[in-house]
Design a protein that fits this description.
This protein is mostly beta strands. The protein has helices at about 10-40, 60; strands spanning about 40-45, 50-55, 75-80, 85-90, 100-105, 110-115, 115-120, 125-135, 135, 145-150, 150-155, 160-165, 170, 180, 185-190, 195-200, 205, 210-215, 220-225, 230-235, 245, 265, 275-280, 280-285, 290-295, 300, 310-315, 315-320, 335, 345-350, 350-355, 370, 380-385.
């Protein structure tokens, strides 16, 4: 067996090289860390100015914002894997109470978990409906669905039981009716628990604009009114695809990997129009099932604030009005979302994310590497390495 023998001079040379490599790695690490710390994350207001900001590696690491939207003046803060969650207000102050888990506020109350059970807290974090349920849904129309002993019922905001637990499943109320399942079939009840539409459907969607999509089999969708009368059938030629609240993700172009905020609620009317897949393209139907915007799009999102996002070509998003006319002089974006509170989030590969107003003009001069739609006056953004905002 042969052994390698190093002289003192060779050993010194090796140690010198190791030291140089070590210093080089430290320099690279320092440079990357300095850039990383410049990356800012937080909320901007509708003028495009910073309202609440966090520094990566400090606030964000230990207490991440766990939702992208404010509701009733609060945003969820923290994550269960870090031990607890709480809420942050628009002044950047934390609610002085923590939960095992919690959800967004709705009608002034939020679902919050304690000792493995769910209840509801008010805007001060105080339980107004004791944490005693296996599962809950958000409040809507003054009522919330709750699961107790594997059965669903509904409670009022004061915690009083309005409709006793008796259903296999239940959805939140919408326009005065809630979908409930009994014996494997769905129907609708009113706010007093009276059965208005019998449990005969395999699948249902919530009421929107006085209409709800229902299916007696797995594919035969139709729309009914609040009395249960059929308004029109979705024939194979006017199929509104079988997904609700589906988010576009890498469907048209790889750029959509950056964000999933554009939703396709394809079985719910929005502003009296319904996106529908007619033949091989998307168009829009009215409340009688008639085609009002001819099928011509690869993607068609619901209308919001009078306009809708559509795409005729992969990665070429535009906005249209209710007559199908293109808006903003035909401006095209690599990615776009529906309008919310007078702002829409758009993306161009040459500019990153930015916001436009109802005239199609960019709001402010800043762009972001990640951003979300506005909610309750604020939007969550990630200001890329070139941030000039002071936090």
């Amino acid at each position: 067996m042969q052994y390698c023998h190093f002289s003192k001079s060779k050993s010194a040379a090796v140690l010198h090289r190791i030291a140089i490599l070590g210093l080089a790695w430290l320099l690279v690490y320092w440079c990357l860390q300095s850039l990383y710390e410049k990356e800012s994350y937080g909320f901007i207001n509708k003028a495009g100015n910073w309202a609440i900001g966090f520094e990566f590696g400090t606030d964000f690491k230990d207490n991440p914002v766990s939702t992208s939207k404010f509701s009733c003046g609060w945003v969820r803060f923290g994550h269960p894997r870090f031990g607890s969650r709480t809420y942050l207000n628009k002044a950047g102050k934390l609610m002085n109470v923590e939960f095992e888990d919690c959800k967004d506020f709705s009608e002034g109350l939020a679902e919050a978990r304690k000792n493995g059970k769910w209840g509801f807290v008010d805007l001060n974090g105080k339980y107004v409906v004791a944490p005693s349920f296996q599962e809950t849904r958000h409040f809507s129309c003054g009522l919330a669905a709750v699961r107790l002993n594997d059965k669903w019922g509904f409670v009022e905001k004061e915690g009083k039981t309005r409709i006793s637990p008796q259903y296999e499943n239940a959805a939140p109320f919408s326009e005065g009716l809630a979908a409930v399942r009994r014996d494997g079939k769905w129907g609708f009840i009113d706010e007093h628990g009276e059965l208005v539409i019998p449990n005969i459907y395999e699948k249902v969607r919530r009421f929107s604009g006085g209409l709800a999509a229902v299916a007696e089999s797995k594919s035969a969708w139709k729309f009914i009114d609040t009395t249960g009368a059929t308004r029109f059938n979705l024939s194979e030629g006017k199929l509104s695809k079988d997904f609700s609240d589906r988010k576009i993700y890498n469907e048209l172009d790889s750029v959509t990997n950056h964000n999933c905020d554009l939703k396709l609620q394809c079985l719910e009317f929005s502003e009296k129009l319904l996106p529908a897949f007619i033949g091989e393209k998307w168009g829009y139907l009215d409340e009688s099932g008639n085609v009002v915007i001819q099928p011509q799009f690869l993607i068609a999102a619901p209308f919001s604030e009078g306009v809708a996002v559509v795409a005729k070509q992969p990665g070429k998003f535009v906005y249209i009005d209710k007559s199908g006319n293109e808006l903003f002089a035909g401006k095209q974006f690599d990615y776009a979302t529906s309008f919310s509170e007078g702002r829409a989030l758009v993306f161009k590969k040459s500019k990153d994310y930015f916001y436009i107003d109802r005239s199609g003009k960019q709001v402010g001069s800043k762009t972001f590497c990640m951003a979300h739609p506005f909610s309750d006056g604020y939007a969550l953004v990630n200001d890329y390495l070139t941030s000039s905002y002071s936090l």
